[in-house]
Amino acid sequence: MRSVTFTLLLLVLAAAVTLVAALRFKDGNLEKLFGAPPVQIGKHLYKFDPLKAKPHRIQLGGNGFLVDCVFENGEWIAECSRVNRGDAAKGGDEKVVKEKLWKDRMDKRAAELIVQFTLGTQVVDVIPKGKLDTAKAGLKEGIIGVRIEDDAGNLLANYFLGHTTKWVYIDPQQAKPKPGDRWQEDKTVFIQPLDPGRSDDTYVGTGDIHSLFRDGFRHLRDHHPFYIDPLALESVRIQNGEDELVLAHATPKAPWRITKPLDRKTNATAVTKLLSDLFNLRAVQVKDRSEVTLPEESANGRERFSLKHFSVPTETTLTIMPPASPEAETVYATVSDRPDTVFELRLKPLPSLPATPKTAGLPTPPPPPKDDLVSLAEIPDTINELRDPMLTMINVESLQGILIKPSTGPEILLSREKLGADWLYGDTRGGPQQKANAVTLIRMVTALTSSKVEGFETDSATNLAPYGLDRPAISLTFVSFGSDRFELLFGQGPDGSWYAMRAGTTSVMSISDEVVRDIYTRLWQWRPPYPWSMSEADVKGIERTMAGKPDLLLEYTYVTQTWNTVREDLKDRSTELVTARADNLLKALLELQVEEWLAPDDPKALEALADPTLRFGITANKVEYANGTAEVTGVLQHVLTLGPGSGPIGSEFYYGRVDKDPYPFRISAKYAERLQVDLFSDN
After folding, report:
1. Where are the alpha helices (H) located in 308-373, listed in sequence order?
2. CA gyration radius for the chain?
3. Digit-coded pLDDT (tens) for 328-366
4. CA distance linking residue 246 with residue 237, whole number of Å
5. Helix (H, G, I), strand (E, B) or coil at 681
6. Which terminus of the chain has a lower count of CB atoms within 10 Å, N or C?
């Protein structure tokens, strides 16, 4: 039988436990008494709002290194130290000796990944205390420790990050994966929270950021030499030896211009690539200044990129050292705002790897990882790469006139009285002006404004003879409403190459033959595209002669819009005529347009038209106009002859001529097919 004293002791202990529990329950939970319950599977280990509780300090430790990362002045700064521990087993207390290795800007993406992993990792499994060999799981102190605090020093997360596990996580929101659908699986790692009040359980969590912590945390250093805000960048200065190139703009929204050595418009695409390449430029590896030997300052071959932001008084300069040898694949570089850091940059892009061939019965191996490092050879850094490559810029809408002066032949003046009026052309020596061919005008202006120069020969030409510009073959003067004007000169060098320059400048550009071919220097090239002018109301009949086919005669009455007599040779086939086909043939003849007028002595046109394969005779009323009225004074016949071009390219068009016009022309083979249509229902 228990004594009264023992019973009273039990009652006192029970009351004490009850009192403590009551006090803890008053705080809202029993976690301080028994520890927090494990986080449920599928839930996140950590929950904090990174916008409200902004991470300010990230402390990392493991493998003999400690890194203290602090967010200062808009960027993360990391300081790395090596930790050496004394051997306590030999007697005395264990001593910790910290050796500072480097202090540098941290890659902000690494900081973001650490925070994202901390907030994003989900529990896949819970392993109670004592059920896991923590050493084998990589959870003993000194492997990888992660501690995150806000700017007030409040603890946001604290945990050990262990090895990857054999658990596989498949997103339940995605469709059920098929065998081999590995892309739906996620790596998992061991995680042991160290926050006060947590249970001692170990978790298997989704994700893996071990690659950030390789090589003594070296990869946390920002491998980007420049810290660029593209919207606030004011200027870029490029120095290569004694040559200096400057790009700048007055405001963030103003277009970039080359301001040195000459004031030039820029190639927007090339400038965008330059800024993008500098923004994405990343080192193969980053080293401390004490680890490498840089070339002497007197060594030639340095290239410098200096960037300046608006409202920042100083430039940030990247200095690229000369390569150690002509065969070197990388080169060292330093940047002015990180004097203790050396970047190893790639000189040339890696060659493309051949595709891995398929193996019978086995799945295709995955492609090798893509190398995304920008090489120095890819960065556009010369004036010819960055200047506007277009031959000229013409505001077509504001043009009033174009004067074409060939070295041989009469001058041609194209002009219009006002905006929206028809363009007229004529010989400057006199004679009436006629309506100009709008297609020819568009083709010429398009060639001049959309063609890129093939090269910039010089910006300081004093002798123009080597380019044929001392006596230009063609001169084009453009005049806009408001009297703005400029002149383009075109010359042909002794080797047959074509060059162009703007009159009054010393810059010479090489251009392609195609540009010159689209400059129309002959009066007949500006003729309207319609080889004849006939009204359907005046058409009385059509005769068609086609190689290999019987001759065809059609008589037409416009009033009733009927085809009356239809004869193929001498056979009447009126009842077999497909009226819609005949109507379409007439429409095609009346709407015939020339694609290009040709010279009277064009040899290929003369050859094709010497033995034409298609001939039309169109009988129509002869109409004369007097005192504003039209009068039919008789009947006349217009003759159209067509012959196909020769060769692979020639098969795409037909040569043609109307009546006794000395100027032949070209139309497409597809249009000629409309004129050869079978008009009868037997096909």
Report:
1. none
2. 42
3. 999 999 999 999 999 999 999 887 655 555 555 555 555
4. 4
5. coil
6. N
How far from 388 is each of 248, 269, 383, 451, 581, CA to CA, in Å? 14, 9, 9, 11, 52
Q: Answer whether 664's CB lies under 8 Å from 598's CB.
A: yes
What's the whole-model pTM score? 0.71
Sign of CA dihedral 14, 19, 25, 30: negative
Interatomic CA distance for residues 251 and 248, integer angstroms: 9
**Helix (H, G, I), strand (E, B), or coil: what is residue 214?**
helix
Token representation of residue 468: 């044929």
Nearest to 249 by CA among 198, 304, 309, 197: 309
Closest of 142, 188, 146, 138 to residue 163, by C-alpha: 138
- 126-146 pLDDT, tens digit per residue, is 998 877 776 666 565 547 999
Q: Which two tokens stand for residue 22?
A: 């009551």
DSSP secondary structure string for all residues of 477-525: EEEETTS-EEEEEEEE-TTS-EEEEETT---EEEE-HHHHHTS--SGGG
Structure token digits, residue 491? 């010359």
Element (H, E) at 429: none
CB 650 within 8 A of CB 604: yes
Tokens encoding 269: 């695409």
Contact yes or no for 523/434 (Cβ under 8 A):
no
Q: How far apart are CA 213 and CA 106, in angstroms?
A: 13
> Under a CB-based contact definition with an 8 Å cutoff, are residues 197 and 32 in contact?
yes
Does an H or E element contain 434, and which? strand 434-435
Residues constituting the chain: 683
Closest by CA to 451, choosing from 506, 495, 496, 513, is: 513
pLDDT tens figures, 603-630 = 999 999 999 999 999 999 988 877 778 7
Per DSSP bridges, beta strands 65-72 and 55-62 are antiparallel
Q: Are 68 and 185 in contact (CB under 8 A)?
A: no
Kindly report the backbone phi and psi dihedral angles of residue 660, in degrees, each rounded to the nearest multiple of 5, phi listed first. -105, 20
pLDDT in tens, 168-184: 766 666 555 555 554 44
Within 10 A of 679 (CB to CB), how many other CB atoms are there?
21
Distance CA 373, CA 282 (A): 6
Whole-angstrom Cα distance, residue 490 to residue 498? 7
Residue with tokens 């606030």: 232
Residue pair 203/125 in contact (Cβ under 8 Å)? The answer is yes
Distance CA 557, CA 554 (A): 10
Give the separation between CA 414 and CA 365, rounded to whole angstroms.
64
Q: How far apart are the C-alpha atoms of 73 and 105, rounded to whole Å?
A: 11
Residues 53, 150 contacting (CB under 8 angstroms): yes
| Residue 297 pLDDT class (50, 70, 90 cuts) | confident
Q: Please state, as a whole number, how many other Cβ atoms lie within 10 Å of the Cβ of residue 246.
A: 15
